[in-house]
């Protein structure tokens, strides 16, 4: 049997089957990806700088959809393992993307429930023998039909061979091997620490077919995030405020300050600026419409002192 796919002018993918065996029912296999791809683009439309991640998600969905169509035709199909590793510094969108994936996979029919369970070491690791496996299995059961997200996953391996964290890892791995196609595990953390974590268990990395790197944002991307934040809340930055923010971010990126948290830092700055603006306007008793939407350089503050 020969199988092929061609694309017509309308962007429609056509499956071409030749010499179809008797057990395969003859059906037209026209698949329109445009609607689903648009849905993926819309789900991540507010995210900056994750084009490669969006492409990977489209590839995952394409594989899923083709498998479903093969089942309809009575052809052999293969389950797709969707467990993932997210590597990136703070504020690069790991948790937000994982949460959005849960809903998207439900909307696309990949997951039956689409809920999002976030767990950390304390949720998985017990204090005495047998408790860890029980706690970990309970979290997995709760996450069935959705996504289990474990940030700073390397903390499970910090205690050494005798630490109960290793038991949590073994329990997670065992469930991944059971082959459930209605459960996705995402482990996340800093790039270097995640690399060391994978090295503690040689067989661990191979169980995650998708390893996605969340790069630090550059200056223009951070400014785009800031503008999107204020615009979505019906504010705008004055030119002076924009320049003040840009200069600050440029300096932070230049020195590669460790406690700078990418988009999270920008979000905190803009939320503080909105509070500072409100405080300034109330003091001045100035409630003109133009002033209510304007964030000035005075409002842009970078310390953490409460307003």
UniProtKB/TrEMBL annotation:
Keyword Methyltransferase attached: no
Keywords: ATP-binding, Nucleotide-binding
Transmembrane parts of this sequence: none
Keyword Nucleotide-binding: yes
Pfam families per UniProt: AAA (PF00004), AAA_lid_6 (PF17866)
Coiled-coil portions: none
Boundaries of every AAA+ ATPase domain copy: 80-218
Similarity comment: Belongs to the CbxX/CfxQ family.
Designated name of the protein: AAA family ATPase
UniProt source species: Oceanobacillus luteolus
Lineage summary: Bacteria, Bacillati, Bacillota, Bacilli, Bacillales
């Amino acid at each position: 049997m020969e199988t092929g796919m061609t694309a017509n002018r309308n962007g429609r993918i056509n499956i071409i089957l030749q010499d179809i065996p008797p057990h395969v029912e003859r059906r037209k296999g026209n698949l329109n990806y445009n609607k689903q791809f648009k849905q993926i683009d819309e789900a991540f439309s507010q995210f900056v700088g994750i084009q490669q991640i969006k492409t990977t998600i489209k590839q995952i969905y394409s594989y899923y959809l083709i498998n479903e169509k093969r089942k309809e035709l009575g052809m052999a199909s293969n389950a797709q393992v969707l467990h993932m590793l997210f590597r990136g510094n703070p504020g690069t969108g790991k948790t937000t993307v994982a949460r959005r994936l849960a809903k998207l996979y439900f909307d696309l029919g990949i997951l039956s429930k689409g809920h999002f369970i976030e767990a950390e070491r304390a949720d998985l690791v017990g204090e005495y023998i047998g408790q860890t496996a029980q706690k970990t299995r309970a979290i997995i059961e709760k996450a069935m039909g959705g996504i289990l997200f474990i940030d700073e996953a390397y903390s499970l391996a910090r205690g050494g061979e005798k630490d109960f964290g290793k038991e949590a890892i073994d329990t997670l791995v065992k469930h991944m091997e059971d082959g459930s196609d209605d459960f996705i595990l995402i482990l996340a953390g800093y790039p270097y620490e995640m690399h060391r974590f994978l090295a503690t268990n040689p067989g661990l990395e191979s169980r995650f077919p998708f390893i996605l790197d969340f790069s630090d944002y550059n200056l223009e991307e951070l400014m785009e995030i800031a503008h999107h934040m204020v615009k979505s809340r019906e504010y705008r930055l004055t030119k002076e405020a924009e320049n003040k923010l840009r200069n600050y971010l440029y300096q932070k990126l230049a020195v590669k300050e460790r406690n700078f948290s990418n988009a999270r830092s920008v979000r905190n700055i803009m939320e503080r600026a909105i509070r500072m603006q409100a405080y300034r306007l109330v003091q001045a008793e100035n409630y003109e419409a133009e002033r209510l939407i304007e964030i000035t350089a005075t409002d842009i503050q970078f310390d953490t002192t409460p307003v």
